[in-house]
Specification:
This protein has 14 helices and 11 strands. It is of the alpha/beta class and 421 residues long.
Length: 421
């Protein structure tokens, strides 16, 4: 028997049992809106959840509130999981309920509550962003390992990559902006990118730190502090990902103020960050670089055009120095989600096109491809995608990513390889 208007005991128990898994995997953004429309959560509750720092803390707060929200809460939660493409979590919960005693099984069948009121099924206009394309797939769960033979063949021409962890990775993700700022909307789907990159960098043996919803000044302070960490001295590489709204050459803090990308790069240059001298620094910038939406053009029949000629290189004047001199900025490679002047595209349920492509390519190819080659593959995936929003200006819209590099060797990550003792 239920006491008052509480959730079924079997539902409470299965949520409790899988609390950690749910806290790690839940993607709340759209899910909270469904539960708000279904009268399971209130506006104040949603604000309380979103005020927590980081997706894990937000998920923990949500899971604390959910069992207190009445007998309909579990079924509406499962419906919201289906609507937000998180069916695997609903399956996890239902399978475990089915293992309960026969009485509990009968009580917890997925049927509507018979209170004379049909549960609400929210139907609301979804942003064009959410419907841009239907080509998203699940992320590969593991990074394929490099073979010892491949390492022995390529390591002498590449950057050293043997430390464990390989290095430190920082993800700065701004999702929820100050409502007083103009034209800086909630970056629905940004939470997905946080999880995607955290999983990817961890699988590549980087120690990951995630910072969310920082002002411009906080971003500068955190990035500078990260660049000065003594741990970089023992590491072989460093990764920084910045996910936010942006313009050409800068990204926004949640207060609507800009941080110049050159400022970010300077924190990690050879002058400011000596612990990373001659070590590869990898950057990913998921942000718009302008307002123009690329509508694309029809390809003409005929062979592809040849590649443009390479740039002229000049040798610097050679002098004898007491110490080897380094350029102020070197050994960096940066992947940009979009070209100069154009917008970056994001699916609110599965994250941005660029981060999805980075994840897919690196999971499958890090074993035997260097980073520059993988970013070319990312470009190829992005080039093939197009928006799907019939009747709007965004239908068949395009995006094109690019990268900039000052690496002087091949950068292989050699995942899974450790030298024999």
């Amino acid at each position: 028997m239920l006491g008052g208007s509480g959730m079924l005991k079997s539902h409470q128990e299965v949520l409790r049992r899988h609390r950690v898994s749910l806290a790690k995997q839940l993607i709340l953004g759209e899910l909270l809106q469904y539960l708000l429309a279904a009268d399971i959560l209130t506006d104040n509750m949603v604000e309380t959840v979103m005020s927590k720092v980081g997706s894990f803390s937000q998920n923990v707060e949500f899971l604390f509130l959910l069992p207190k929200r009445g007998p309909r809460a579990f079924e509406e939660f499962c419906a919201a999981l289906r609507e937000t493409k998180q069916e695997h979590l609903e399956k996890l919960l239902r399978q475990n309920i089915a293992r309960e005693s026969s009485v509990d099984t009968i009580l917890s069948c997925p049927i509507q509550e018979t209170e004379g009121v049909k549960p609400k099924r929210p139907r609301r206009h979804e942003s064009v962003e959410m419907c841009l394309d239907g080509g998203d797939g699940p992320l590969c769960p593991t990074v394929l390992s490099c073979t010892p033979e491949f390492y022995m063949k390529h390591h002498e021409q590449s950057y050293r990559m043997l430390s464990s962890p390989r290095g430190l990775a920082l993800v700065v993700s701004n999702v929820q902006f100050d409502p007083t700022t103009h034209d800086l909307d909630f970056r629905s789907g940004g939470e997905v990118d946080e999880i995607t990159l955290t999983n990817l960098f961890s699988a590549l043996d980087f120690r990951v730190k995630v910072l969310t919803n920082k002002t411009a000044e906080e971003m500068r302070a955190e990035l500078e502090q990260f660049s000065r960490l003594e741990e970089h001295r023992l590491a072989d590489a460093c990764v920084v990902a910045v996910l936010s709204h942006g313009v050409e050459g800068a990204v926004y803090g949640v207060d609507g103020k800009l941080v110049q990308l050159d400022e970010i790069f300077q924190f990690f240059d050879n002058s400011s960050c000596p612990n990373l001298q001659n070590k590869p620094k990898v950057f990913f910038i998921q942000a718009c670089r302008g307002d123009e939406t690329d509508s694309g053009v029809d390809q003409r029949d005929g062979p592809d055009q040849s590649e443009p000629p390479g740039c002229e290189q000049r040798d610097a004047r050679k002098e004898k120095d007491l110490k080897v001199r380094l350029p102020t900025q070197s050994d960096m490679i940066c992947g940009y989600a979009s070209l100069k002047g154009t917008a970056a595209l994001r699916n609110t349920k599965r994250g941005s096109w660029f981060i999805q492509a980075v994840s897919e390519v690196f999971y499958h190819n890090a074993k035997d491809k260097h980073v520059a080659d993988m970013l070319v593959k990312v470009n190829s995936l992005i080039k093939q995608r197009e928006g799907f929003a019939p009747g709007t200006e965004f239908h068949r819209c395009k995006e094109m990513s690019e990268y900039r590099s000052s690496l002087d060797k091949d950068l292989y990550l050699f995942p899974g390889y450790q030298p024999s003792l």
